[in-house]
Amino acid sequence: MAFQAGGPHAQDRGLEAVVYAYEDMTRTPAVARWEKPQGKRDPLVMEKHFTVIPRGIGLVIGCSTFPTWNSYPGLFASLVTGNAVIVKPHPGGVLPLAITVEICRDVLSEEGFNPNIVTLAADSAEAPLAKELALAPEVKLIDFTGSTTFGNWLEDNARQALVYTEKAGVNCVIIDSTDNFRGMIGNLAFTLSLYSGQMCTTPQNIFIPEGGIETEDGHKSFDEVAAALATGVEKLNGDDARASAILGAIQSKATLERIGEYGKGDNVILASRSVPMDGFDGATIQTPLILKATDESSYTAELFGPISFVVPSKDTADSLKIVENSVKNHGAISFGIYSASDEVLDAAEDMACRVGVAISFNLTGGVYVNQTAAFSDFHATGCNPAANAALSDTAYVSNRYRVVQSRKHI
Amino acid sequence: MAFQAGGPHAQDRGLEAVVYAYEDMTRTPAVARWEKPQGKRDPLVMEKHFTVIPRGIGLVIGCSTFPTWNSYPGLFASLVTGNAVIVKPHPGGVLPLAITVEICRDVLSEEGFNPNIVTLAADSAEAPLAKELALAPEVKLIDFTGSTTFGNWLEDNARQALVYTEKAGVNCVIIDSTDNFRGMIGNLAFTLSLYSGQMCTTPQNIFIPEGGIETEDGHKSFDEVAAALATGVEKLNGDDARASAILGAIQSKATLERIGEYGKGDNVILASRSVPMDGFDGATIQTPLILKATDESSYTAELFGPISFVVPSKDTADSLKIVENSVKNHGAISFGIYSASDEVLDAAEDMACRVGVAISFNLTGGVYVNQTAAFSDFHATGCNPAANAALSDTAYVSNRYRVVQSRKHI
Fold first, then answer.
1. From the list A28, A356, A395, which residue is nearest B399 (CB)?
2. Each residue of A344-389: pLDDT tens digit?
3. Please, are residues B313 and B209 in contact by the beta-carbon 8 Å criterion?
4. Which domains does chain B have, with CATH numbers?
5. CB-based contact, B110 to chain A, within 8 Å
6. Torsions phi, psi for B357 (to 5 deg)
7. Cross-chain CB nearest to A399 (options B49, B353, B395)
8. Checking DSSP bridges between strand B203-209 and strand B307-313, what pairing results, if any?
9. A377, B406: Cβ pair inside 8 Å?
């Protein structure tokens, strides 16, 4: 899985950005002949040249959990539009980007370019470089994935640059009803477990009407749904070898500590357990922690990692209202809903369009709400607090370059 | 001419923005079928829907000199991408936009839309509305043409919105040499006179080597070139009826006062004269004022209106260097060069690409450096201080909307 998301999927997203940028740049012809009729006189005729010029230097600030996947779109979008790029990896995820930069430099040299078009600026938590680099007047493009605090700082302070940010979000799932209860539980169990919930698309809050839901097997109470979800996650991760492959390690100490802290409450529906992994004694692998939400304040902040809440709502209309406000105020990259009612699905899609979040309907098979496919799914919408850009669309690439025109009579 | 630039040319630019936006929005299909092979099992199949959603409310802040031409691109770009638009005209140019808004509302009603999708917010110099509107949280797009001071204020303060600005600039022409002296002088004379230099594309500073230039008729000294230009402008505007048609009225009192003030110096090469117009006794029509630059500080700020400088440079290399710094520091929308040397033209184009300004070579006929044609010429580049966007390109339209996606198995 590290291979998948770190390698081909990251390269997919990089290539996707290249395609968008290439298509956009080539919409303007390099040369055009222009004629203006002048009545009986000869027409005015001009030859016009259009040159794509770069913005300046691009700065890519990597994150720790998916160093390549979250960096490649910005890296390649800036490169293909002619900008040099400085890659500043997260101190906790240097190697994947160091390898990337090394290969970029090799390829640039092989093709006769100056290898310094791509450089690495590794720093440490003690002596961070990001702010200094971000404020350099030569830096005209910044791509960042990470905390809302630093993302907002970049947007507010690096005013000489165009800043593309992906920040924190709180993803939600609404369960209204289902005609495939088993499929729904299986899908959600995998969703919550994959990469230990360390994806920016993993749902955190799962809304279930307090009166329960209708299924193909009849009514199920809130507690029955919550218990089924807990059992599903527990069983999926019952075998240590399989669990460690699905979960992967917990990346940061802060996440580990958060699991410990939140696991102490009296609202635990499924406790997190440590998973041993043969040959990796120091690996910090934890199964997901599932909690029952107490009040709204308990679940509205992002708790990055494998911590999720089942949240009782009055009814699905209430769930929709809460999620709408949550996306508006706290951002979200993914949103899933389960319902056997087309009316409910339509209302959910309307809401998703109002607040700008991608929506997945009734995922009960091999597609998970936290997965997006390059060339088919947009990652983030760019219009809620979780991100100010989408991967990838025209808006993500079209301002990374400009066009300078010349014209002369011929 | 008011008809031309105010009517069809403005509509051209509006339509151009619509075309760019429509093409960009329709690059993403409304519905797509997605299949993922699963080895021997059935493929995963999904149906995905992509919905274009607006940003919110667009605010168009009009300018006084070309109220329609400078407003239509933003107005129509925001409208076609689904945003409602508030039009706030300049207090000195309300009527053209009031008529525009009235027609927009009629058309919206005819087509079954709410006419309030387009509204007019006229204000006065005493009780301005622009800042209040610009900071409204619902306003997500702002298009502005006007002063650098207010443009920068918008960029710095209306952080909830995407802000597209066209601000002040200092356009330059370099004369290196020519094989059509008469054509060059005729072209420049018209360029300086058209609309009394009240176009954001009119050149202000004309650089001529202090040692003079080579022409098809042999060498001409700096003074001879300057005198020919003065004579050209004087003759073009010698007939009052023709002059008033080419010049049009001076729009603002500030411009009139500036002409008076700068006309008092001892560096006047061509004095400005008032032009009477039959039937319009109060019309303030002035022929262009041409000055000889004394030191750099005399010509580096924008002196909006029919005031231009002939500037002696050491040589053309010096001219290029001065213009490069001028564009970088003070912005420019147009740049013209006259040279019989391909080497000089190439160097000028390289410089134009470095600083991001459109360049016109050897205009000696019926095309003028201050004119751009929609669907063929970009207006501004968006990468020097004169404007942060170009009319029109993908970058100008592609972030005015977002795409929200839904997906389900089929």
1. A395
2. 999 999 999 999 999 999 999 999 999 999 999 999 999 999 999 9
3. yes
4. 2-167+387-409 (3.40.605.10), 171-361 (3.40.309.10)
5. no
6. -140, 140
7. B395
8. parallel
9. no
